[in-house]
Every structure is written in C-alpha cells, then in structure tokens.
Design brief:
Elements lengths: L2 H12 L3 E4 L15 E6 L3 H14 L3 E4 L5 E3 L4 E7 L7 E5 L2 E5 L4 H10 L2 E2 L11 H6 L3 E2 L2 E2 L4 E7 L5 E4 L13 H4 L2 E8 L1 E2 L2 H18 L6 E4 L9 H7 L6 E2 L2 E3 L6 E4 L5 H19 L8 E3 L12
Parallel strand pairs: 2-5, 3-5, 4-19
Antiparallel strand pairs: 1-2, 6-7, 7-13, 8-14, 9-10, 11-12, 11-13, 15-18, 16-17, 17-18
Length: 314
C-alpha cells in the first residue's frame, strides 16, 4: 500500500474498524461486478468517520462510500483508493417514541421494515424488498410502489468532510426523484429519524407480503443486478421504451437486458464492467434513435476511467 493509505489503515485499526487490503469489490455489490481497491474499511462508530474521513481528505487519498452496493456499477479493473463499507457493523434501530425510529445508516431497509411491522407502524411497506441500507436509500431518495423515503424521513444526521455534524430536516434535504442534498454534497449520512403511523399489524404484513410477491413475480431477482438500470424519463417509463425498441434479451457477454423485466440489466454469470457498459450504451443509443428519449443510468458508476462523484452512495 501507499504510505498515506497505510496511515489511514493504522488509524482505522486503532478505532477497531474491520480492514481488508486489496478487497475484491464484486463481493460488495449486488451486480457481482468489480475489481480490487487498495483498502476496504468497515467503520464501527461515529468516531471512525470523524477521524478517517478528514484524514483521507488531508492526505488527498480518494475514497468511496458503499452500503450494500445495490445501486453501484464498479469497474472490473478495480479502483484506486479506499472504500468505506457502511453496513452491519454500523447499524442499529432505536425508538424516540411510539412512532419515531432512529436508524443508523448501515441498517438494512428490510430490517427497518420488519421492526416497523413488529411495532405495528405503517408507512414503510413500500421499501420492503429494496436491497439497500438506510444511508443509500436516503442518499438517492429510494422509492417503489408509490412511496419514497422523502415521505417518511423526519431528519437526517450527517457529517461533512471536516468532521462536523449537522442535522437536516425535510425542507433542507432537497429530495427529488432519485436524489437528495447528499447526492453532490460529499457529506456522510450517519443516521436518520423515520416517522411512521400506528396501524394494523395484520394489514401492514398483508401489504408487505403483497408487494414482495409482486417483486418476485415481475423482477429478475434470481440474477445479480442493481435493480432498475435506468431512471424514469419524464413522460414515459424506461422499461416500456426498452421493450418497444425490441431490446429484451439483448446481451453483451453475460450482461443481458432481462427478458422478465426490460428495465433490469442482469449479470447471467460472469459479466464484467466493459460488457455491462457496452450494453448500457447500446440500450441508450437505440432508445434515443428510435424514440427520442434520453435514458440516464440510475446506479452510480465508479471507475478511475470515468469522472464520477467521489462519494457515490450505496
């Protein structure tokens, strides 16, 4: 490792963080695509962030923030720098009152949904089955089946690159379709307050089960993917446009436009970054040429060959 990365690794060890050198990032993305990074760190406390992020900034070491890697496309050739994985080692749920949950950013959405169910709280059902963490969901204002994170978030605690903390409330979060203030701010999401409403436990479970069954029946969950590959363009739907263009089943190597749901590009086995990006290009060019619509990728693309945001989300 480079000397500066070794310094960060040493500090991370002092803080009790879990460290992995030359980590294979395909093991940390739902697409199962991605090469190695110099150092992977799993923070275990707020202090981990307040020490390590400013240190990386001071030493000018590039870094990325991962959650479950469910909204990422990572270069098979690997990336330079450090990857911070905010997951089960920085997760947890507590209650401020009967209707307010405080969740650390590494907490899986599925766990939050089940906790809401256990406490007969409604409003979170839409997120059941979204394969991400709270931090990633807030970062991109995740949503499904008519619900979005903006509907239930009361406040978010975040840290800037200098280690300063701030609490943001709904009118400061700039939530929009698949984005938030954090999309470009460089801040690290630490935790969030979720406000729900009391409801019928049986009705909540029924709705969760129904939505999960819809996911299983309509989406290619049996294959690695990053969920919906393209954002919904104004005036139409990406999956509809892709299907109208006859692109279902189109593939480059093991990267394929799903025959089950054309909005998903899937990894049928050993797809790599170049195959995936080539297929994305084919889909975008074909849809633009045939319909005039310009599709935009929903997952964040992380590659040293492509200019991206430094803190790319989850």
């Amino acid at each position: 490792m480079e000397p500066d990365i070794e310094k960060i690794s040493a500090e991370a060890a002092k803080l009790g963080c879990i460290i992995e050198e030359n980590a294979l990032l395909k093991n940390y993305t739902t697409f199962r695509i991605g090469g190695k990074c110099s150092l992977l760190i799993k923070p275990v406390s707020e202090e981990s962030f307040s020490v390590l992020i400013p240190l990386a900034e001071k030493l000018d070491v590039p870094y990325y923030i991962f959650g479950k890697g469910s909204n990422l496309i990572v270069d098979s050739d690997g990336i330079n720098g450090i990857v911070f994985v905010i997951g089960k080692d920085f997760s947890g749920i507590s209650f401020r009152n009967d209707e307010t949950m405080i969740c650390l950013s590494g907490t899986p959405l599925s766990q939050i949904c089940l906790s809401a169910l256990e406490n007969s709280l409604t409003g979170m059902e839409f997120a059941y089955g979204i394969p991400g963490t709270l931090g990633g969901a807030v970062f991109m204002n995740a949503g499904a089946y008519g619900g979005e994170m903006k509907d239930i978030i009361h406040s978010v605690k975040a840290m800037d690159i200098k280690g300063n903390y701030k609490e943001y409330f709904p009118d400061e979060l700039d939530f929009a379709y698949r984005r938030s203030r954090f999309t470009n701010s460089g801040e690290i999401i630490i935790s969030a307050e979720i406000r729900l409403e009391k409801g019928s436990r049986s009705e909540i479970k029924e709705k969760m089960d129904k939505l999960m069954e819809q996911r299983r029946s309509r989406q290619p969950l049996e294959f690695p993917s990053a969920g919906s590959t393209f954002k919904r363009p104004a005036g139409s739907y990406a999956s509809l446009l892709i299907e109208q263009c006859g692109l279902k089943g189109t593939h480059v190597g093991d990267a394929e436009v799903s025959t089950k749901h054309s909005g998903f590009i899937i990894n049928k086995g050993n797809a790599d970054f170049s195959q995936l990006m080539e297929l994305i290009g084919i889909v975008k060019d074909t849809v633009k040429n045939k319909t005039g619509y310009v599709l935009e990728c929903e997952p964040q693309i992380i590659s040293d060959k492509i200019t991206t945001e430094r803190n790319d989300g989850r």
